[in-house]
Amino acid sequence: MIHESELILNANGSIYHLNLLPDHISDTILTVGDPGRVGQVSRHFDSIEFEGVHREFVTHVGYYRGKRLTVLSTGMGTDNIDIVMNELDALVNIDFMSRTVRPPEEHLRLRIIRLGTSGSLQADVPVGSLLATQHAVGLDTLMQFYPFMETGLETQVAKDLQQTLALPFAPYVVRGSDLLREQLGASMLVGNTVTCPGFYGPQGRRLRLDLRQPDYMQRLQSFRHQSPEGDFRLSNFEMETAGYYALGQLLGHEVLSLNAIVANRATGEFAQNSAAIIDTMIEQTLAALTR
Known about the structure:
Rossmann fold; two-stranded antiparallel sheet; 15 strands; 26% helix; 30% strand
């Protein structure tokens, strides 16, 4: 049995942070960072059966062309993704009454699609484009606390990047769902996304503080790893994808990150129509999910 201090439930039996009951989610979940973007997705629904708000976690559940979908805001950063992924999994794979993990044959495999904004690292990934993440590279330390194991290409990329960036810890590299990427990202660019533990210094931005490595951005942009699978480079960065992919792999869920490119750090450009770019990503994703 899982102790009350480990699996924390609210007075109404809902999971602690998300404030949701198992019936409140579907098996396909669209996640967004910004709570205000939940409505930007659910306004396309034919009907909405549930709306919930708790802290930064806003949830809408409804139907789009007959398909039941959940839209959930997560806030920013892999620390929030640690909460979201563990609590979503608990909602479907733990019996809250007995406080026990359901047997493996009863485990539900969720489909989780991140609809997020991102900055491009490369000039040929232009502002306004949509990108599906194949590999995510975590520059955060979340996976230091879980039994996450890399193999093959991922191990070598992590070692090379740690040396390139002179990091005191090893990054982690993880591949997202090929199944979801083929379904939802067929018309998009495909790239490798860096997940950063912050928006300013970790993404090479300088306002009043200098960076420890003045050429940090150049190191990211020029990074290459040669392998039989081809030339591995870093295409864009944001703040959540690696946490999604690693926890999804550990928990047994299909996870894909889709990125609306609203900034290009190689050219210094920022989108003046970011809402329209995000709308395009949302509409394409909903259409692909119900095609």
